[in-house]
Amino acid sequence: MPGNSQRPNRRTSNKKGMQVGSGGQRRKALKGKGPTPPAEMRTGHVKKRAADARARREAARPAARRGARSAAEMVVGRNPVVEALRAGVPAKTLYVQQFLESDDRVTEAIKLAMERGSVNLLEASKAELDRLTGALHHQGIVLQVPPYEYAHPDDLLDAAHDAGRPPLIVALDGVTDPRNLGAVVRSVAAFGGHGVVVPERRAAGMTAGAWKTSAGTAARTPVARATNLTRALQAYQKAGLTVVGLAADGEADLADVAALDGPLVVVVGSEGRGLSRLVGETCDIRARIPMPGGAESLNAGVAAGIVLYEAARRRG
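Request: output the structure for the sequence above.
Response:
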């Protein structure tokens, strides 16, 4: 009779629910642990501990020591692309839209890229160019600029040592306009400097705009990136360099600074805010550039050029 069976585990009802040995069903079902994870992901495993140790060592190592690189950049639009190629900006690939109605700028861009020989020429659909540029108005032509490989601040000291001259370095504090960075690089090259140091964060980097403004000098003047600018300046001081910061309220006129003919770091702040507090306190001397015409400030490129000229003049 139904319900009176003595056989174990025998279903005697049509009611749904858990069954003996089934592991449950639906929401009450038991779930397996899934596949066994790799050894590098298993807590307590020797390979997991080794992988964690490698990651900690890599994170602790300064980024600049690893040859830190910026992200690849896309120059978009016909005029910007032609100007970048004319200025000798390093380029990896020139993308041209399929079935594009060509004009003088497109023709010149293709010609300049072919003359270099190192620039890949690729034809791409409009949809692909939209994806590459984030839907910017590219006008059917895009130039890919490879990541810039920054030096380490210590590399600039090595360059000065190899040249057999006292180090002459410019550090930028809070300068965010790439054109100003390019102008400083150009001045450093013109007056025999050994490189430029920029902070890793909240500062201009070596973009295509900076390359153009440098007028090609960025190819032979290293730009170093410091994780912490204050610590980089302190390291230069320990190496025997004098750190001179430019400030409108500096305690000395530039002409009265005797340290310009020796191992030197010139620190230039932004035109609006000047030097940050910690950087200003780190400087050995805060100097001002006399401006009898009454201007309140100079942009970073002009200010650096004036100091570099005076330093080069004294060094003969």
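The CA atoms of residues 69 and 149 lie 5 Å apart.
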